[in-house]
């Protein structure tokens, strides 16, 4: 049985047993769900071309005929989650009389080209690439313009503005760059546009995560996290120690050896990273339900000095980790093989193994276990895991222009300065119409979230910047 | 045996027997031949990605370090033929200290992904699409910039200007549109940018061909050509008649029935079209060796009135056709299954069946047999011939923006007003930096040919326009 089949069966089983908690995003915004048949491969010819159902969501509540279309270019996940977490588009829709459209990225959510078998073989995964996804968006927008308006939409009649956060932010910018006739401008939030091999130093990401813990946690937090790695590794040398961790941390399976420990350490890294990514100033339900400032909440549970009490440290970590793993108190056990609880992580890791190669390394200076960046090793692990070769590491740069964004126009790149991915973001203006806006203290794409009474002036400033940019693009300024 | 295999064996056999004359283009310009391994599929992931050898030609005679790179985006044919017929680039290279590069289009010339088997199955032909070809060009240019200059080339250091004629002109413009960071501007000559379904009326093409024969032939020529169709159809009703045509026109095979007659009529149409396309004011060797103004030369052989002498008409046509079929006097017989004498036509018909769908119909007003445009029928014939389905007819428009070229920049579209494809060309300015230049009386992409003492002021004007545009793009103006 292939690794794919095993993973598939495992996930199916866990979902069936309700052990994996399904995302239970609050439905703040009402959206109509639609589907459209799109070609699996836009760039090749076939005897029998395969089409599949792509999902998109529409809200026309604020739309007035002649108003623009705001399109969210879906990223790695269920589009409804992104729609519910992109309140900014709903907040400003009435100002612009805009139609809102959220298009799902192929191989995520309900847009699975081969249904549940989409992830079962390398052949079925073949067409999970950004270029194909961009063509999907162009295809859907073109269809919409013809069906909704009974004519071909242009900038002049029904201009389209693209929005996106994180990988979705890259896609919104790339859509503007590759289909400028279709999209008048792009609001690209927290998009690691320059996070490709040879373009961003590998140590910057974990360094930024560490900065988040230093800034939002207390003095001892980073020190305790660093200590934690050694404690885990030492305890794991005996069966007793592994059992102790397994029980205390409520792992779904017991730790049995070196491979499990490696998985545990990687899982822990990801939890830290995700807390930094979702370190919003109010509770959110994006990756998983989290309190306000999860990094602070996590660190607040690690206040004692544990230098002579390794088991005490593991116990305290257990409570601290529940901030991330079980904030709702409903989780039965922690599955260290997944941090997202569905296919999403599998699909995105696949993309990071093939196209979105973001070199990461940790050094003595950060709070992670020291690990160099080794492309050959990375590619080999990807091959073992997914059975595919990474695309030539230069392709992202060749396809999307690398750092040469000054040759494009009408894009805003916003970055939360406390977003770890801002290390690969566009943080300076590139041309007279390609702008950067940096949001002090903020995590990723907070500017795309709905307005909130506790929003600070930095966030309000970013949103105001976006509104003015859009007005310029729509000739309303 | 599949149709593919049959065609392959037939062509191989004919080449072996030297019945098909190989292109014997005069080598005016010296070029170094190079090869580079490019991915067969730039937009998908593979367990073992396939690469193949793409050919490109380089001339560095006029190049001074720091000078720009002029790239010809190869179209449907052997790149060396296009290189030898694009003297304009050689003529202006010294003015700009430019490096000249001619990149071959995949599936043409020597750039065959599966060698001689490239055309043997629909699977092998799968990746013959314009989007893949554009990615090849970006890939080669990126490689060149890194190897030739040991750094990443940008507009600021070593700007790249794209050139192309006809389909190659579409590619040069699309390269600028899709990779503007890579290419500072495009000289797109005689490119039928708007020749897609729903964008250009189907009757304009044959109408333009007819205009060429009316303008360059004499009064009776079009009338005689029209009469010719009826004479052929009537004669073909008997075996005797078919034999007479077969012998008189030196066909390689004897006409045997309705299907052969259909092929003959299509072949004759293509001969007329190609003469109009290559109706230059001096002898050329582009499609095939031709005299100056082949349309005039052809018509000059059809001066008698044949209304009561059908056999005489066929005989006179025989002499007239030799202008196209046997100008060098070396041809043994005429193969009506091919007008190009190699794989080129097969590959390009495939592209016209899948992606480059250019609706053509003839009416009473033109000199061709009346034939409506019927997409369903066209698609069905393509399926019978190549075993593939045409891409949705909207894809060309969605991918490349249809008529919305005003949202792009730095392109010159030149058209010979007497080029039949000018009916689908960009003949008016689209924006402040997307210009059209119309060349009176001229056939296709004469502006890209080398300067000649007999060039008229229209052609000289077009070349001067190009030079000034390039100077502006390079900040030399």
TrEMBL record, chains A, B:
<dbReference type="Pfam" id="PF05577">
    <property type="entry name" value="Peptidase_S28"/>
</dbReference>
<keyword id="KW-0458">Lysosome</keyword>
<dbReference type="InterPro" id="IPR042269">
    <property type="entry name" value="Ser_carbopepase_S28_SKS"/>
</dbReference>
<keyword id="KW-0325">Glycoprotein</keyword>
<comment type="subunit">
    <text>Homodimer.</text>
</comment>
<keyword id="KW-0121">Carboxypeptidase</keyword>
<keyword id="KW-0645">Protease</keyword>
<dbReference type="InterPro" id="IPR029058">
    <property type="entry name" value="AB_hydrolase_fold"/>
</dbReference>
<comment type="similarity">
    <text>Belongs to the peptidase S28 family.</text>
</comment>
<dbReference type="GO" id="GO:0006508">
    <property type="term" value="P:proteolysis"/>
</dbReference>
<keyword id="KW-0732">Signal</keyword>
<dbReference type="InterPro" id="IPR008758">
    <property type="entry name" value="Peptidase_S28"/>
</dbReference>
<keyword id="KW-0865">Zymogen</keyword>
<dbReference type="GO" id="GO:0008239">
    <property type="term" value="F:dipeptidyl-peptidase activity"/>
</dbReference>
<dbReference type="GO" id="GO:0005764">
    <property type="term" value="C:lysosome"/>
</dbReference>
<keyword id="KW-0378">Hydrolase</keyword>
<dbReference type="GO" id="GO:0004185">
    <property type="term" value="F:serine-type carboxypeptidase activity"/>
</dbReference>
<feature type="signal peptide">
    <location>
        <begin position="1"/>
        <end position="25"/>
    </location>
</feature>
<keyword id="KW-1015">Disulfide bond</keyword>
<protein>
    <recommendedName>
        <fullName>Lysosomal Pro-X carboxypeptidase</fullName>
        <ecNumber>3.4.16.2</ecNumber>
    </recommendedName>
</protein>
<comment type="function">
    <text>Cleaves C-terminal amino acids linked to proline in peptides such as angiotensin II, III and des-Arg9-bradykinin. This cleavage occurs at acidic pH, but enzymatic activity is retained with some substrates at neutral pH.</text>
</comment>
